[in-house]
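hey all, quick one before standup. I had two proteins in the batch that finished overnight and I want to keep them in one place so we stop losing track of which output belongs to which input. First protein below, input sequence then C-alpha cells straight from the run.
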Amino acid sequence: MAMGTANFYAEGVAPLLIDNSLAILNRTGAYHIAKDICAEFTPEHGRVRYWRLGSTMPDGLIRKIAARLMMLEISWLQDRGICLIDGRNSDRGIRVFLDPLYVLRSVLTGDDIVLCHDVGPLTHSILYDRRTAENYRRAYEKIRRQKPGIVFVSEWSKRNFTSLCGSDFRFLETIPLYVRTELFDGPSEAVPAANGPFFLTVGAFETRKNQIAALKAYRDGRFHARGIKYVLCGPRGDGHKQILEFAKNTPGVVIPGYVPDSQLRWLYAHAEAFVLPSLLEGFGMPALEAAYMGLLPIVSEESALVEAVGGLCVQVPPTDPEAITRAMASSLSRSSKERESTGSMLRELALCATKQQFLLKWKNLLLGEKNAPSPFHAPDTGVGAGQSLFHAP
C-alpha cells in the first residue's frame, strides 16, 4: 500500500539532489515548473544536476547539442547499469527526478522521488514515436521495481499510473500545478489578424492536442461565415505539418504561431471561448490560464483538463467534431449575465492555484513543514472535478 508523506529531509541526511535534465530538452510548461522547484530548494537544501553537465545549465547551440547527446545516450544504453551518471560515487540522500525518463541513466532507490506529469507514452503510445514510447516504458518499469515516492500533477495522472503500476510505492502524492501570474502582468499587444470575435487554442502543434478535430468543428459549424475567427497559437511539435496544412486551408483560421506574453494576454482577454479537445494532458495548464482570465474552456470530457478547472467547463468527446461544433455554438449564445457569472467563478478558482501554494506543498513533502497549508482550495461551486457546469446541447 502507498505510504503517507513524511519529512524526507531530516537532520543528518545528505542534501537533496534535484535532477533537472528535462530542462536541457524541454521548453514547455514542465520546464517552468522544474525551474521553480530548483530555484526554491537550491542551493540552500541541495543542488541541481543537468545530465552529465553537473550544475551548469547550457544555453543556445550548446544546449541543443547536449540535448541530442543526452537522448542518444538514453536510447543506446537505456536502463543498463553501466556508465550511470552517479554509478561510482552515488550521492547519499534523496534524488528528486523532475521527469521519469531520466531515472534510466541514474541510480534509483526507494528513497528517491519522481515527478510524473502523465503516463501518456504508455497509455497513448500511438501519439509518440516508437523510441520515445520504448524509453518511457523502460523508465516506468525501473520505477515499478524500485518503488520510489511519486508526485503527480493531477489525480487523473495518478489514476492512470496506479492502473498500470499499482499503488505499492513509498508514497503517491498529488501536487496540482499553478498559474504563472507573471504571464498576465504587463501591457497587452493585439494580434492584428485576430480582429473581431474569435475562438482560441493555446498549445503546441502536436497530434495529441487534437487541433485538427477542433478545426473540423470550426469549419463544419460555418463560423467563418458568421464573422467568427479561430486563433491557434503555440510552438511546433510532433505532427505540426499536418495541423498547419489543415489550418491554412480552413478559412477564418489565424496562425500567429508562438506568441510573446504580451500578445497571449490580449488573446486570453478577448477570445469568445478557449478550445482544447486534447487526446492527452497530464494537467492542462492553458485551460487553467484561460480560467484565470475568466475565459470559458471547452475541453475533453473526463480528462485532466476538467480537473484543472474544477469542472467549470464544457466537456466534449474529443473525437466527435459535431459535439465540439455544438459546444462552440453554445458558447457564443450565452448572455452577458451568463458570461459574467461564469467568468467570475473561473477567476475565483484559478486564483487559488498559486505558485506559493504549490511550493508550500513541496516543502511539506521534502522539508517536513507540516503546518504548511493545503496547496489548492477550489471555491465551492457545487461542481465536482468529474462533473461539468455546462453541457453542449
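OK second protein, same deal, sequence then C-alpha cells:
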Amino acid sequence: MTDIRSVTVLGTGVLGSQIAYATAYAGFAVTAYDIDDAALEAGKARFEGLAKTYEAEVEGAAGGRAVAALERITYSSDLADAVADADLVIEAVPESLEIKRSTWQKVGEAAPERAIFATNSSTLLPSDFKDATGRPARFLALHFANRVWVQNTAEVMGTADTDPAVFAAVVEFAKDINMVPIALKKEQPGYVLNSLLVPFLNAGAALWVNGVADVETIDKTWRIATGAPMGPFQIFDVIGMVTPYNIAKASDDPTQQKFAEILKRGFIDEGKLGVASGEGFYRYGA
C-alpha cells in the first residue's frame, strides 16, 4: 500500500469516469472534477452505469459493493477546491496540449505540496507539459485502457525529471486499484498500448476514407482473419469519437484530416459518440 488516500480525477468523460470509479471501488476517497454542473451530472450517470456494469461483470461486485463505491465519490466544478486535499491528481481532460497546460498550471498552484500529479494523456508526452505543473519531479503519466475492469493495464511513464520514489508510488497505487502496472523505462509517444493500437486504427480509417471497403467489411476481415473480438471501427465506438477526432485533427496526414472532418460532421455534431451514446459506426440497443 502507498500513502495515497485521497484521489482527485479531472474529467468525468468515458475514461475519466472509469478511472474515478475504479479508484473508489478499490476503497479510496475520490473527488470527481469537471468544468460545470452539467458535465458533472453526465458524469454521475456514467458512474451509476459503471456500478451496474461492475455488478454484472466483476466477480464480488454484486450485493452492495459496487453501489458502495458511489458513496466514496464527491463532485466539484471548482478546480482549486477539488485538488485542495489531494494526495494524487489524475488528469483525464481533452487531448489538447493547450488545455492540459492550462489545467496543470492551475492545479500546481492549488494542490498541496505532497500531491503527486499524473496525466492519462493518450498521445502527448508528459515532458511536453511537465513544467506547467510547477513541480516536474512529482509529475508523470498514468495511462489506462478503456473498460478498466477488464482491460486493466495501467502504463506508468515518467520523464527525465520524475522522482523515482514518485514513480514507484504510482506503480503501487496502480496495483492497489486492481490494475496491472506496465512500467515504461523511457518516454514513448503512445506508450506500449497506443504504439500498437493507433497505427492499426489509422489503417482501418484510411481504408474507409479512401473508399477501399466499408466499415462492416473492414471489421469483419480483421475479426475472421485474426480471431480478434473487434475490428477497428468497433474499437472506435468503444473509445468514443472525441479522442479519435482530436488525434486525427492534430495529424499532418491528409487522410487523417479528412477522417477528422467526417467524425466531426457525421458523428460528433449528430451526437453519435459511439457505445456511450447508443450509436456510432454501429447502433447499440439497451
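Flagging for whoever picks this up: Residues 6-183 form a domain with the Rossmann fold fold (CATH 3.40.50.720). Residues 237 and 267 are 11 Å apart (CA to CA).
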